[in-house]
Amino acid sequence: MRMASTYLKGLSAVLFCLLAVPMPAAQSFSVDTSTIDSFVTDRMESSGVPGVSLVIVDDGGISYQKGYGHAGGGQGALDSRVPMCIGSLTKSFTALAVMQLIDHEKIRLHEPVGRYVSSFQSSSGTSEPITVFHLLTHTSGFSTLQGNQVIQTSRLDLAKPESLEALVEEIARMEPVRQAGGVADYSNANYLVLAQLVQQVSGMSYARYFRENIFGPLGMNRSFVRGEGGDHPDPAASFRFWFGYPVEYDAQVDEGPVGPTGIYSTAGDMGRYLLAMMNRDSRLLSAETFELLFSTVREHRSGPGEMGWRYSEPNGNAAFWHSGECPGATNVMAIFPEERTALAVMANARSGGFHFSRVGALTQGPLQMIVGSEPAKDGPGPKDWAALLFLVILIGALAVWAIRLVRSYATGSLSALKYPFDVRELLWRVGVPIGLLLAICYGLLVVLPNFNDTTLWGVFLFAPDLAWLLTIGGGLAAGVAILRAVLLARFTLSVNKGA
Length: 499
Prior knowledge:
By secondary structure, the protein is of the alpha+beta class. The chain has two domains: about 5-370, Beta-lactamase (3-Layer(aba) Sandwich), CATH 3.40.710; about 380-499. The chain is built from 16 helices and twelve strands. The protein has helices at about 10-20, 35-45, 90-105, 120, 130-135, 145-150, 165-175, 190-200, 205-220, 265-280, 285-300, 360-370, 380-410, 425-450, 455-460, 465-499; strands at about 50-60, 60-70, 85, 225, 240, 245-250, 265, 310, 320-325, 330-335, 340-345, 350. The chain has a six-stranded antiparallel β-sheet with strand order 2-1-11-10-9-8, with helices on both faces. Strands 3-7-4 form a three-stranded antiparallel β-sheet. A three-stranded mixed β-sheet has the order 6-5-12, covered by helices on one side.
């Protein structure tokens, strides 16, 4: 399921900028594990990231895997066998499951999704043209905000498998913001519907399907789906940064449903998965369907993540990649098909709203080093400092305003409204300031999160430090508006009674 300026899409946007610019010819490609090891160790120490796990594979299999730091939750050291939430990396697994159903001729890529998902069979005409292909390529017409809202505003227990059907029913009732088949817009709604498609067509639960058709055949024995019953390894604890300090958090309480997210995996298991995808393992798909999958990703390289992957050419090196975040986890994976190399980097932490610790810069660093690029720097940038300064000044100004109002009322220096009331005075002294304050409240609590394709609750999940400042600022603005109206009314009544 993707904070000061970009919230859920921040990691993908930064990574795209760093990896997407094609060069005339491939430059040096080097996998120096000692350099990568030093980078991860040094960056963890400087940023405070609790734990990192990474894996590198080549034609011969897993060539390097290592864990750094600790898993949290009293589990001790983090190694490549400890599962972590992989966030939106799950989308590539969901897309793979759908392509398997196509491979087995159980569904067709360009058929309307209503033929396979019962919720869409009775949906409105605007939903009928949405095909399986549209969902896989984020061209269904559903927006990023719609996909996040349907999850973040749900009162369902998203850990329960039965919640998926209810969410998909809600999506089927939504009006897409644009025509299907048009502009791509990364939306979790698409992969929620695809997860339900996998369940209905296969006759299995999402968890069972993956256990039998992907995890089992590849030997991913320590990977599992959230909410799945039975025994599975304890995952690493999750950490969210509050103004640069990692705070442990029970992320499993608030993670989204299966489809766009929901899988837990280890660095070792991700290595097995990447090796199978890189080698186009026939246990997963036929050669023709593999080609269809990857060629679709290449053809839509400017899109937001078709088939659960993105394509770019960092320093001229072809790369299929994707990033994934959970509340308290940051991940990235990449396949370099021409160099026969793939890797995944996983961290059990998520940057705060102002990026005092850039977890994404740490996880992206090994990818950038391999293709000869300089790793991104740690710490907040100018926009982060500007956002923090703006919110602190705004909160301070609102607090001073409230104190001055109370003091003016207590000392009797508050100027009463003239009676009989004058419309212009009411507008200037009541309407304008209260309207401004309520606009500030609405802007902080609704407009800013929505502008970044999320809700206030989504900000709380991924960047609680920023969310609390937004909430304090919005609450203060509403409070000062009410305080001004009440004190002005009471003072005016007392003056007029005395007269």
